UniProtKB/TrEMBL annotation, chain B:
Name used for this protein in its record: Sulfurtransferase
Ranges where the Rhodanese domain occurs: 31-138, 173-288
Alphabetized UniProt keyword annotations: Repeat, Transferase
Molecular-function annotations in GO: thiosulfate-cyanide sulfurtransferase activity
Annotated source species: Naasia lichenicola
PROSITE patterns listed in its UniProt record: RHODANESE_1, RHODANESE_2, RHODANESE_3
Reaction(s) catalysed (UniProt annotation): thiosulfate + hydrogen cyanide = thiocyanate + sulfite + 2 H(+)
PANTHER family assigned: THIOSULFATE SULFURTRANSFERASE
Chain ranges passing through the membrane: none
Entries under InterPro entries matching the protein: Rhodanese-like_dom (IPR001763), Rhodanese-like_dom_sf (IPR036873), Thiosulfate_sulfurtransferase (IPR051126), Thiosulphate_STrfase_CS (IPR001307)
UniProt keyword Transferase present: yes
Cross-referenced SUPFAM superfamilies: Rhodanese/Cell cycle control phosphatase
Amino acid sequence: MQTALPNERVIIEAMTSDLPESLAVIRDDFLALDQPDRLQLLLEFSGELPALPEHLKDHPDLLERVEECQSPVFIVVELEDDAAQTVRMHATAPREAPTTRGFASILVQGLSGLTADQVLEVPSDYPQMLGLNDAVSLLRIRGMGGMLARVKRQIALKRVAA
Amino acid sequence: MVLAADPSEKFAGFAHPERLVSTEWLAQHLGEPGLVVVESDEDVLLYETGHIPGAVKVDWHTELNDPIARDYIDGAGFSTLLGSKGISRDSTVVIYGDKNNWWAAYALWVFTLFGHEDVRLLDGGRAKWEAEGREYTTDKPAITAVDYPVVERDDVTVRAFKEDVLAHLGSPLVDVRSPEEFSGERTTAPAYPEEGALRGGHIPSAQNVPWAKAVAEDGTFKTPVELDAVYRAGAGLKQGDPVIAYCRIGERSSHTWFVLTHLLGFENVRNYDGSWTEWGSAVRVPIVRGSEPGVVPSR
């Protein structure tokens, strides 16, 4: 297992100085760990993915499939009625796809509660900042990039519709 | 071969029945000296959520691939990897995994590049083991590291490179991707970038036989008669034909390589692991669009 470069953290923090607090905390938690423990933390996130709220449970039509992930994962973003349009993200993915669940859980936890503007400004390469490239592989992390892109797209479309 | 082959009647009609074991057989033989069970999944965390007792994990991406170049690890790397997993050169290795053994078949194919003799697939993979309610554990297996010799990788017998495929044009090619990928129509939603290859379509004259046609509903391999119908009658492959199989990155096609080689007994089958992510981005190679195989351009 390759260890992180000593300056990895410095480089990444410089790249992402204005990341919202919630996402910065998650990133720091990952970067503080050795590679095998980063995988373990991703597994913990996977276990923490909340179930869909009642009003979405029986409405699979409201959720969008993330085609970039090989495992079936569905997401939906809701905007609250407040002035800031606070974002609530929900996702569902099967137990047999713990990595995908972990990615979804990171975004659900990191994006929910931010304003729509804040989410639209999240760097598209946020998934690459978690230091998981060696433990998980770049190809798999692309799936999380696809999820983030779809979150942003849903927000943009919902704003137009509102 | 350390452990005797699974004598299941279902396997008797296959060309190399010793390459498959049933879930029953595996349950009976778990823990026997000389047997190492390997889990190889698409999902890098699935093993950690629970695995067959004693099984070790081999990840195709972080362990079998070279970390820098687009290639597999070399003989020294393979020796270190297998030794650290407690696998000896003469171990009986049984590989299983998620997604109907996609990645298990891929790992088996990589083991074959290094000539590991006794490597088998668990028929039905992880899904069947789970469906039957068999035991899982999250306990880490106690591994005793062993010496595995440094064996030079054989890139000729079961592996094809782009140049080999160009030279092979005119002989049977099997494209095991989905019909949409084969025809080259867009598969991603509007406003999302097409990832992986710069062009869509397939290699001229390739027959499209999606890999999952080899698999029955319960995730096990179909019977010899059914497989014949798919590959001989359906795709027109004939005994003695040299065949090259490919997909997007060579993983689904190693599943088909396994079926053609070990179940149907084709003797000259290679897997083009560069597959569409290389061919679809390469300069000046012929490509056919649409659902027909198309013809090989004259050279």
